[in-house]
Amino acid sequence: MQRKTPLARTGFKRPEPSTAVKTTFHTQTVLRKAALKTRRKRVTVAEGAKYLAACRGEPCYLNVECPWSDWADPTVVDCHSNQSKHGKGGGLKAKHWFTVPGCAKCHEWLDRSGAPFEDKCAAFDDALARWEPRRARKMGLEIQEAA
How far apart are CA 139 and CA 35, in angstroms? Predict the structure, then answer.
């Protein structure tokens, strides 16, 4: 099928920007970058680094997958609580003062195993109760009474 008349060549019109906002593409980019720069940075590890550092060089306090030992295991890291009462939520870690030293095996058990949540909570709460006085002595803090 052939056309009898050629297509009309008309340019397209850009819609006029509203009178309230008359900015160009470049200006919008500059405004967006300026807005991103002024955004307040979230405090993450810096505010609780002293609590995380206190876990270094300590033995494992969870003692679920490993036997209790008084020597510092090289795989010991700070294990955050997985309980919402300690500030844990979707995409959020618990507050830094709710950490205990735990070896790699126990940390794996706490975070990824299929053990019942109640068992994990009980093990963490027991470890935290034993760790808090020692951490307080190590950091020179007063032990806070649970309210």
Answer: 40
pTM: 0.64
Residue 53: the pLDDT is: 85
Domain of 91? 46-135
Q: Which residues pair with 79 in a beta bridge?
A: 100
Query: Is there a contact between 59 and 73 (Cβ–Cβ < 8 Å)?
Result: yes
Q: In the numeric block, which tokens belong to residue 50?
A: 């002293």
Residue 23 in any domain: the answer is no
What is the spatial distance between Cα 56 and Cα 81, in angstroms, rounded to a whole number? 17
What are the backbone angles phi and psi of residue 45, rounded to the nearest 5°? -75, -25
In a domain, 3, yes or no: no
**For residue 16, is it within any domain?**
no
Q: Is 114 helix (H, G, I), strand (E, B) or coil?
A: coil
Sign of CA dihedral 136, 140, 145, 147: negative
- Ranges of residues in the chain whose predicted pLDDT is under 50: 146-147
- How far apart are alpha carbons 55 and 6 in whole angstroms? 80
Opening angle at CA 89, ends 106 and 119, nearest 5: 35
Distance (Å, whole) CA 46 – CA 102: 21
Q: How many domains does the chain have?
A: 1
Residue 87 inside a domain? The answer is: yes
